[in-house]
Amino acid sequence: MTMRRILRGAAALAFTAAAVLTGAAQAQAEGGTWDGCPYGAVCIYPENVTPATNPHPSHIFYSYGFHPIYNQYGNHWILNNQYDGALVELCKSVNTDCHESIPPQEGWYVDLTPINSLNLREHYQ
């Protein structure tokens, strides 16, 4: 294999990874682990980390309800790998003031500085 073919393959792989994470990321396939986030969970990744290239979440939440998040500042990926339409809400106060919801099988790149808790909830509430 020539060096040119290796570099072309690496460039194609980098382009594909960038395309997957542009805007709101979409999960590859429902039912499995997604960039280190187990199926049925919501995951937060360290600040400025891309899950596709570093699939090691810093926080993993499984249960419905409010989950306070402490000392999370700057931009982080949040992946919602839950099922049955379950949502994760971003809350600016602990257990209240929730305005944005991340649908299942979506990932958002979010400034967590104003966020104090996450609310994992079933879709029909």
What is the topology?
Layout: H1 3-20, E1 25-26, E2 41-44, E3 59-61, E4 65-68, E5 75-81, E6 87-93, E7 96-102, E8 106-111, E9 117-121
Antiparallel strand pairs: 1-8, 2-3, 2-5, 4-9, 5-8, 6-7, 6-9
In short:
The protein has about 120 residues and is an alpha+beta fold. About 15% of the residues lie in helices and about 35% in strands.
| Span of the ends, CA to CA | 56 Å
Oligomer: single chain
Number of strands: 9
Give start-end ranges of low-pLDDT stretches: 1-24
Report the biggest beta sheet as strand number plus sense, adding barrel if it closes.
5 strands, antiparallel
Any idea what the shape is? globular
Mean pLDDT: 82
Which structural class fits the helix and strand makeup?
alpha+beta
Order of helices and strands: HEEEEEEEEE
Work out the strand percent. Answer: 35-45%
Number of contiguous helices:
1
Molecular structure report:
The chain has 125 residues and is an alpha+beta fold. It is 14% helix and 36% strand. The protein has one helix at 3-20; strands at 25-26, 41-44, 59-61, 65-68, 75-81, 87-93, 96-102, 106-111, 117-121. The chain has a five-stranded antiparallel β-sheet with strand order 1-8-5-2-3, with no helix packed on it. Strands 4-9-6-7 form a four-stranded antiparallel β-sheet, with no helix packed on it. The longest helix is centred in the first third of the chain and has 18 residues, at 3-20. The N and C termini lie far apart (56 Å).
